[in-house]
Amino acid sequence: MSSLSTAVRRTTLYGILAAGALLSVAPYLLTLNGALKRPADLLSTDAWIPAHPATFANFTAVWNQYGMSSFLLHTLSVAVLVTIGQVVFSALAAYALARMEFPGRDWLFWGYLATMMVPQMITLVPLFLMMRELGLVDTYAGLILPTLFGTPYGVFLVRQHFRTIPHDLEAAARIDGANTWTILVRIMLPLSRPILATLAIITFVNTWNNLIWPLIITNSDRTRVITVGISALQGEHVSDLPHIVLAGAALALLPLIAVFLLFQRHIVRSIALTGLK
Amino acid sequence: MIDNISPTKTFPGGDGSRRHPAESPPSSTAGHRRGRGRIRATLEAYLLLAPSLAGLLMFLVAPIVGVVVISFFDWNLMGTPRFVGLANYREMMGDSEVWRAMRNTVYYVLLNIPAQTVLALLLALAMNRKLRGLKVLRVLFVLPWMAMPVALGIVWSWAFDPQRGVVNQFLALFGVDGPAWLSSTGWAMPVLASVNIWQYTGYTMLFLLAGLQAIPESLYEAADLDGAGTVQRFFRITLPLLRPSMFFVLVTNTIGSFQMFDTVYVMTQGGPGGSTDTMNYHIYQQAFQLFRTGYASALAMLLFAVILLVTAVQLLYFRKRTIYDFS
Amino acid sequence: MSASSRRVLAATATSALLLCLTTACGSSGSDTSSGGTVTLRYAIWDAVQEPALQKSVAVFEKQHPKIKVKIELNAWAQYWSKLQTQMAGRTAPDVFWDHVAYFPQFSQQNVLADLTPYIKADKLDTSIYDPKLLTGWQQDGKQYGLPKDWDTIAQVYNKTMLEKAGLTQDELGGLSWNTTDGGSFVKALQKLTVDDNGKHPNEPGFDSKHVKQYGLALGSANGQTDWWDAAVQNGCKLQDKAWGKWTINQPSCVKAIQFVQDLRLKYHVAVPASVTNTPNGASLPQVMARKQAAVVWDGSWDLNAYQSSMKGNFGVAELPSGPAGKGTVYNGLSNALYAGSKHPKEAWELVKWLGSQESQKIIVSQGSVWPGIPTLNKDYVAVWQKRGVDVSAFSKEAEGTTVGYPLTTSSATYNVKVQDAFNQVWLGQQSPKAAADSVNEESNAAIK
Hints:
The complex is a heterotrimer. Chain B has 14 helices and 2 strands.
């Protein structure tokens, strides 16, 4: 194979990949670009024409006038709480399922696996009714509780990882008199940082972007999260607000991107790990 | 930049050779097997499991029981529920809109999963080379995964606008008169599928890339000695050893695709002509727009059954051909 | 710290969290009434009207220092689904915009508070309201809301474009259409429609695929601002009688729907449905802001949206007349009090305020909507006159032939079914007859 054809092939590969990468970020760029346009320009210019002159007025409006600041705060608190809950409770359950022997363990594990296939839509109506009877409609508790204690997916993920940690470490600690809790906290968890980080990231992103449950369970601005806040601004009678929607969209997208770019090294690696377990 | 994804470094057992369950009995409690020790271990285990199990029972198992019960009633969530026996199921069987929604859902999954998997695999193969700049590109490819469908809905709708959308403007450069994408019964669903493919291809690629990097280089070297070509290497070594990753990706993506909701909700609301009315959207509409809660519950049971069936088929297929460490 | 004490701590923390989430923290979101201050929730669906409402509410809060009002905005497409979910969850807003279309269903579900005792106790003079509006919110001698406004549909046009085509406001308002050749209405729209090469639809070589400017843009999720008006102008009745059956598949209705479809697909004088169809299409004010059309059929509630993008360069003309003469949809909203409100007294104060002369004067002064109190109509006209827009077409239409929203318990079903079916009609994917038949049948089947 001549070096010339290698160079050609390499250039082609780079070209295709670069085009793909551009496609990946284009919708983000279009959102940000649109959010920076003045309302009149937004309607009269094509989407790809750069915002000129750029304005922050849309962001100010969406932040102050349309309550996005509090929606973002609600979203953040919910996402953080759910993430903490899921990581902690999934790790506890996963340890029991991975490393302890007790009656009913295998049975339980298969139960967890089976519930992974339950569509969210199926639980929606009963969950709503349950929250209504508990008086938790339109409360943070109602928003958070269903996913706080971990998902079967999370338990499965962490359990698969725990099983790859050598037993010797644990056995040695037992001989030194360590109890289950110490082993979990001192040995298993420190060795599982990547997988716990993965679970945290996946949970955070999913909770941040979740639409359907908040759509049903929240109904006032007191609990409204950003997905519901943005969708409420789309449709007949509010449709002359595209600049507001775009600014809101940019505000909803940017924090995740920031988190991602900050931790991309760990995120990319640890997400990939989950597929191997 | 990003470290090479090499789970083998950190994780014994991540190398594709799975430990069989029989070979690795949990030994942690070995010394406490008898008497009080055993009871204590059991107690401890259930204590650790308690929050997760409570959550599971209350927010997943109980609702499933609930939805079965509700499916035998006629109820709008407000008045008194009226027991109707199997009437909801009977109506479902004869409801052409339900079967259209089911066809749409399957169509969406078929548009989505093969294309996304193949693209992700090609991307992973490209990314698996030792070339400069790939790590930066990899980060960019994963960015769409985090995109909030509701936030991007407006941008997508504009991108596919027949006259002023960037898609048709781009096509016009090549003299192609693009269709009115979201108003076309033929195109609307492929558009929704491409939005999803855009979102998840990079994410899927990560899993496959990790799988690729876990394949020992020595296998390829051996193949090279046997004079195997690129194509042979791919089909004889890469693909078979990638099966565990493929299995994971296919099963989770398929379950996810069956539940697509956000994109339909913001972009088409099931139209035009019901061509993007998926099961999940149809159930939502029956439950929370028309408040036919009992009927919606029956539909939810149908969707659940189909997902179970499809997952079971996938399990059986892969079980014959792979050694995925489940237990 | 020993391992066991740490475990105790962890367990305590967990149970505290649980306890907090299920009890105390659960109440963090419920109705706040700290220090005797009550916060009322007020649900609306129109962003264009929000600024004016905020002004009115600010005055109310000043007069009632112990009551705060939070306006909650949900787009029309989600408003009703949301409101009904809220009612099912027993957490609906204290006060909300009610619509005639949903009034029968809500009164059947007992979710609206009867205002009669409050009216009596406060000796409220309800004779200030237009009787037509007031009685619309009555049933069995009970009052379920106070009139907020009224609206009709008219033709909003771009002044520059109309002048260029040599048409005046009076001419535009005096046009007529028929189902054979489209009449003078279609002829005028042909003048207003120009393709990229400057050709009109009635000229040879007109390129219907590349149109620079359309004569007309139509758009409506349920028919109010497009085919319902044409239907009235063709003598069609949407319903056989109040609380009766839908009759939108009668020949006179189907012919009107056919005409509206023809405007797009046969005469090529109206913006294609792919641009205007809900949910992904552009709204009428957006179409006008983009200069894609010269004329739109729209309700008075959107005037402020046109003002913000066209700054007085628009006018309002009456709708054309059809085979059966002139006609439009007449409608009005009310402010309703949620029967499950935890603060009914305060909520009533708000409903009373929103229905008062003072509040409606504020709304009118912003040019927001026509008031529920007829004596203020002239003030509304004056506000728009100052902005250079003659809005009398709306009131002239209100005095002529009008049709109200069908009174039925199946509006939810109708609204869900009609959108997709009629989107297809405008796209040419379904015949008017087939769409009308299916929507009619399904809506009637859902009547309770």
